[in-house]
């Protein structure tokens, strides 16, 4: 696979000059600031993004990949690392999102910490990091920002918008807010609104961060510190929800960590403890605590039906978009009934929708893993859409 | 219902003098210290307990009630409070654990913070609170301490040992370690070993506590402080696991807390956030953070099969005890398959076992709630046992 950050950028695109770990970074909302749901206006603001493959002549082969809570703009080939991208098996030459055929775009979400405008970036008005002065954003705001990026790239209409978890929320919101701007939408392991239980888990994470004195009321970057312990606890709690009980049992069971018997103490006697501690501390090195607050909040606020008088079907009224909704049997964070609600709403609007529940014991994280049936379903849907659309590559 | 702390204590029992919020407190292990699984010996040590009803002439009507992680020795009529006891609907005159008929005993577990010996009590050797010098205890240790209390009360054999959640672990361990000392055992919403997922959730709680600088490496009582924020986060995370998604949805859904629209901020916009914050802060006022570490650890270590060469059936070999195993459909902390494993182990040992899964959407906490089918099953089992045993009251 090509290791350059961008396989190719069409020559007529005004690609910005700065190219670093973030991939490509573009300044958007320069002439017209972005109107946010909270009432604030943001602009100019940065969007860090990545593209794979070639945009075809009629600009009809673009797929927008939307990342999850802690994802980034590098689903494949992240720069300067041996780590695989978070969708390395999905995006690439000959893969389901075939970069020989499609022009794949992925942007770090607004509010994120991988180069797009978010609480860790410098607030141009004050010259210090935004911190809690950054406006609270919503999934709809993230999607608005993505449309500005598409404008910048000269893409009027996507072939498909796709994502898992929070990416599914964006895939839904994009298709609902801009039905004329995508041919298809694939929300995977998602929901039309964030459940009470999930808001609860997010609130636990936020309280863990805000309880850490090193959070400094959100201004930790100005004090040269970060709420490491709080953010690690937040990640540990969240990580459990990404797996299934079966997956945890198979992976760790009650096996001990580098010892023959329990120590009768509070060290990580069990492998599962050691694993979670590692997940927590590794996360702190790559993620910004305030971004975690902002992005979880955006997910909490997500409620497609509420935006449409409480009736989900209204959100999909007269939609021309073809939907493929996918869930996983052992996902208890975004369980199948949540996906079924999306499908019911689409059916009630007489929309074109395929639905598939994939049998797996890997929990919510299954959307990131090598699940052959999942890949097959997705491949079939995309092939069908390409054929319908007469997509030429 | 009688509001005195003890309905009646048989006149010939040597009831200790101190009687306060803890109920009755007895000093045990005076002549012979308690041998703990970790190798340490503890004694003398305090046990705070409570009794309800009258011990009959042949001392055959005693029921030992075992409390859960954050429970106490007051299942009914807690002193000096308007709050109901944690099993107020179960224990009392005319109720399932009928105090007109049975002599009900409940003790605060070893390692607890309601008057029994635990990390917040004074270490007699140093004159300051035990803190982390308190030995790490196990479920088997808790049960050993309870048998000393029974010795003290002059009760050779229980009619029944019963408990939910961690109480179920004790009910199992008691019947396995001392099969000659109980006629029946009722483990409710329990497991024969703590799962990887549950160890994971416990570790999140412990890390939240230990991340709080006010924890002071466990010596917070000596500094006149306590890890309020860390313990509150631990409780919030745990509380979610006690409920079902359905219960949270029914109770709170996405309803807002005293506001008409979201605030685009990090206040408790949603009722579920406000509820969890309240659960966290109220818990801090009644529970000791180090006790939380010790008791969760005891649960993590619980693995009945491991004590018997990895074969659960061996734990039950030749047992004369009659078991009634109960689970709840929506309990995902101790789901029905965990109870089924207990039943399989008992069946493999040709033991006498009844099993019932109660249909409810209230999650793990159902064992504390008013569930008529649950009460009916339990009542039927106890009636059957009383009849078999020819119990006279």
From TrEMBL, chains A, B:
InterPro entries: AB_hydrolase_1 (IPR000073), AB_hydrolase_fold (IPR029058), HAT_MetX-like (IPR008220). Residues 61-369 form the AB hydrolase-1 domain. It holds the Pfam family Abhydrolase_1. Pathway: Amino-acid biosynthesis; L-methionine biosynthesis via de novo pathway; O-acetyl-L-homoserine from L-homoserine: step 1/1. It is an enzyme of class 2 (transferase). The active site is at residues 165, 331, 364. It catalyses: L-homoserine + acetyl-CoA = O-acetyl-L-homoserine + CoA. It comes from the Bacteria. Its EC number is 2.3.1.31. The keyword Transferase applies. Its main location: cytoplasm. Keywords: Acyltransferase, Amino-acid biosynthesis, Cytoplasm, Methionine biosynthesis, Transferase. Substrate binds at residues 235, 365. It is found in: Cytoplasm. Homodimer. Transfers an acetyl group from acetyl-CoA to L-homoserine, forming acetyl-L-homoserine. Belongs to the AB hydrolase superfamily. MetX family. This is Homoserine O-acetyltransferase. The lineage of its organism: Bacteria, Pseudomonadati, Pseudomonadota, Alphaproteobacteria, Rhodospirillales.
């Amino acid at each position: 696979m090509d290791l350059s950050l961008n396989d190719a950028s069409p020559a007529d695109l005004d690609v910005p000059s700065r190219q670093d770990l973030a991939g490509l970074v573009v300044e958007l909302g320069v002439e017209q600031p972005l109107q946010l749901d909270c009432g604030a206006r943001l602009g100019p603001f940065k969007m860090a993004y990545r593209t794979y493959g070639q945009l075809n002549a009629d600009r009809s082969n673009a797929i927008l990949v939307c990342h999850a809570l802690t994802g980034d703009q590098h689903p494949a080939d992240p720069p300067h690392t041996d780590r695989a991208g978070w969708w390395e098996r999905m995006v690439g030459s000959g893969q389901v999102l075939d970069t020989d055929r499609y022009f794949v775009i992925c942007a770090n979400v607004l509010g994120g910490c991988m180069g797009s405008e978010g609480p860790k970036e410098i607030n141009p008005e004050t010259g210090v990091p935004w911190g809690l002065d950054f406006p609270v954003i919503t999934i709809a705001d993230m999607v608005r920002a993505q449309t500005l990026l598409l404008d910048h790239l000269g893409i009027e209409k996507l072939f498909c918008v796709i994502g898992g978890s929070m990416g599914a929320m964006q895939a839904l919101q994009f298709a609902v807010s801009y039905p004329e701007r995508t041919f298809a939408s694939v929300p995977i392991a998602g929901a039309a609104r964030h459940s009470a239980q999930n808001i609860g888990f997010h609130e636990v994470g936020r309280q863990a961060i805000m309880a850490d004195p090193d959070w400094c009321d959100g201004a930790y970057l100005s004090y040269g510190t970060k709420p490491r312990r709080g953010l690690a606890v937040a990640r540990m709690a969240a990580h459990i929800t990404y797996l299934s009980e079966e997956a945890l049992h198979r992976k760790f069971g009650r096996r001990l960590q580098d010892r023959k018997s329990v120590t009768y103490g509070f060290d990580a006697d069990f492998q599962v403890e050691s694993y979670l501690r590692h997940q927590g501390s590794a996360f702190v090195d790559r993620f910004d605590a305030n971004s975690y607050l902002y992005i979880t909040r955006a997910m909490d606020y997500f409620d497609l039906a509420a935006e449409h008088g409480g009736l989900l079907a209204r959100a999909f009224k007269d939609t021309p978009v073809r939907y493929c909704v996918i869930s996983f049997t052992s996902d208890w964070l975004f369980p199948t009934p949540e996906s079924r609600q999306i499908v019911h709403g689409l059916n009630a609007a007489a929309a074109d929708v395929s639905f598939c529940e994939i049998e797996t014991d890997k929990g919510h994280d299954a959307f990131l893993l090598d699940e052959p049936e999942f890949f097959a379903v997705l491949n079939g849907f995309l092939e069908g859409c390409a054929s319908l659309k007469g997509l030429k590559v």
